[in-house]
């Protein structure tokens, strides 16, 4: 009751939109084809990679957008890292070890962003596939059933789909990632 006295007007509406956008990102990252057909490992780290690449596609779309959309993207990114923190704790990592793991995962995320964005900007599926192979399946990409080429094509299609939506639509939380199975 007293907390509501200090809450900013509109904060609940923003929370609903942030949750809606993050739900779209999570749902896209959980598409079975990514794991069963394209070889992303169905492990905590593999699921982190899938969620991370979807966040990177979303952030790619919002990086040069209106200030409100950039603020929404930041809130969704904050939600992503809160979710990662929660997942680490669910895996049994204690309070002392969580910050160390979070720093490592944040470095991994931001280290992937540059090469992925560079390849996405150029529309270069080959360069994107190479970066995905180095990051998701280092050392094993050539021998595993890992389909970096399919994931790269999907990421480019997702970036194109998000680019087709105007800022006003995205600000309502209407973020649509394509069906991964239909892209490949």
Automatic annotation (TrEMBL):
InterPro entries: Ubiq_cyt_c_chap, Ubiqinol_cyt_c_chaperone_CPB3, Ubq_cyt-c_CBP3-rel. Residues 37-177 form the Ubiquinol-cytochrome c chaperone domain. It comes from the Bacteria. Belongs to the CBP3 family. This is Ubiquinol-cytochrome C chaperone. It comes from Oceaniradius stylonematis.
